[in-house]
Structure of ABC transporter ATP-binding protein:
Amino acid sequence: MRGRDHPEPDSSPTAAAVGDAVSAAPSPAPEAIAVVAATVRRHGRDGAPLLLLDDVDWRVAGGEQWVVLGPNGAGKSTLLQLAGGVLHPSEGRVRILGARVGGTDLRTLRERIGRVDAATTRALRPALDGLQVVLTGAFGSIALQRRRLAEVHERRARGLLALVGAEALAIRRFEDCSQGERQRLLLARALMGGERGPELLLLDEPATGLDLPSRERLVAAVAATARERPELPTVTVTHHVEEIPPTTTHALLLAAGRVVAAGTVDEVLRDEPLSRCFGLGLEVTRSGGRWAARVRPVTAV
Ligand SMILES: Nc1ncnc2c1ncn2[C@@H]1O[C@H](COP(=O)(O)OP(=O)(O)OP(=O)(O)O)[C@@H](O)[C@H]1O
């Protein structure tokens, strides 16, 4: 983590439709994959300004596996949208994979980022089959770009279906898949990223709606990916510490749009920072590489 240096002039805080841009400025440090030093504002219906992210300063380096935790409305998804190049900051700056958001076309950049998020899920055509859903991830788009697809993409897609235990879904329509099956397809889709796979993986609540076996399978698939590609930086947003993959190295705690704590899991996934973040006395334990949290029992005096 480091402080911001040169705040950029405001490009209005709108989603990627506005501007979609990257400049050719040199990257700040070779190992920096995503650097966010930004504030995001919106206006409520009454015109009152809302601070979604307040001066958040965060850096993800190659090989780091981050988890982002925080209460509802903390700004977790907003932060992931910034890091994925689908949202422009109101103030400050964002650099992703060496490119500065705010200059030229972001579409090429997005092809290098694997994402699981609710907006993408909603936008996918329900009639696509499982294999096609995974193949849309090859170019970071919602549509199946048939003309750009080659044999190598299909080979990779089938391999990823196997990785997430979803070979049988290759010919099932997305709309007919259960929630757990869809989440597995979406993870495989996020891992597509062209011929070589993504250079940054952003998973926004990837285990939503999963039963216990499906959740465990998903966590295992994320962990397997981290072991297979240890250099691939990953950011996972979750509500439940039980869903944090054992390969996670760093944690960011957000509350009301501000960073409460950020650092290694050993520093951050502890009783005090988590209790402060959620405003609740919490007890955190780790066993077999996995975390668990519960409200601290009240001791009788
Ligand atoms: N377009 C918008 N206009 C106004 N407020 C918004 C807009 N988008 C998000 N917000 C608000 O910004 C805050 C942060 O939203 P965000 O989705 O990033 O939170 P989150 O931490 O991901 O929440 P959750 O855990 O509930 O998914 C919320 O209070 C939300 O209502």
